[in-house]
Amino acid sequence: MAKSDGELVVAAIDFGTTYSGWAFSFKHDFERDPCKVSAKTWTGHQLTTLKGPTCVLIKPDGKTLDTFGYDAETQYSQLSQSGEHKKWYYFQKFKMMLWNKPIHKDMMLDDESGKSLPAITVFSLSIRFMIDDLTSMSNQQVSGLNLEDIYWVLTVPAIWNDSAKQFMRLAAQEAGIPCEKLSIALEPEAASIYC
């Protein structure tokens, strides 16, 4: 795993099969208290949790993220009630589509209604949502932060092969994370280091 040197923040994205979340820690906070971590609080369906549903709603152009998580579920439900959902792309629990399959950068994913988009687009838009959401919250604590100030850790399942890990690395890069500012960590390793 690469070491972060000049960054002010270390951020982690847990892109889960069913639920996803993110957290970050400022280096100066970590030096004083390694357990001081800021994380997103997701709200939806009368719940407040540290993770939100791994579902994404993409606009009819197939290139623009509309919403992610509980907001995507709610928006897609509203679109369905009015019959407009057929134009939109709604993906949920799509991460494990990368497991146990030949993976290539041109692979396609089918959404809930059978429409296809490039998998790299679906994953990179989802990661981009996490990046934007996290940087918005971190800028509330310290203004003026940009991507160069953040070192990113993206977790993946231990059972994933190298091509699936490489795919996630490409999706993260397409989402805007520079390769030198990114580590891919196996989920159990990340958990054991924190615990």
Overall description:
With 195 residues, the chain is of the alpha+beta class. It has a single domain, classed as Nucleotidyltransferase, domain 5. Helices cover 33% and strands 28% of the residues. It is built from five helices and 13 strands. A hairpin with a 6-residue loop joins strand 7 (55-58) and strand 8 (65-68). InterPro entries: ATPase_NBD (IPR043129).
Characterize this entry briefly.
InterPro entries: ATPase_NBD (IPR043129). With 195 residues, the chain is of the alpha+beta class. Helix content is 33%, strand content 28%.
Task: Note the main attributes of this structure.
alpha+beta, ATPase_NBD, three-stranded antiparallel β-sheet, Nucleotidyltransferase, domain 5, 13 strands, 195 residues
- The CATH architecture assignment turns out to be 2-Layer Sandwich
What is the CATH first-level class name?
Alpha Beta
Contiguous uncertain segments of 5+ residues: none
> How much of the residues is beta strand, in percent?
25-35%
Q: Would you report the number of β strands?
A: 13
Mean pLDDT: 89
Rg is 17 Å
Shape: globular
Biggest sheet architecture: 6 strands, mixed
Helix content: 25-40%
Structural class estimated from helices and strands:
alpha+beta
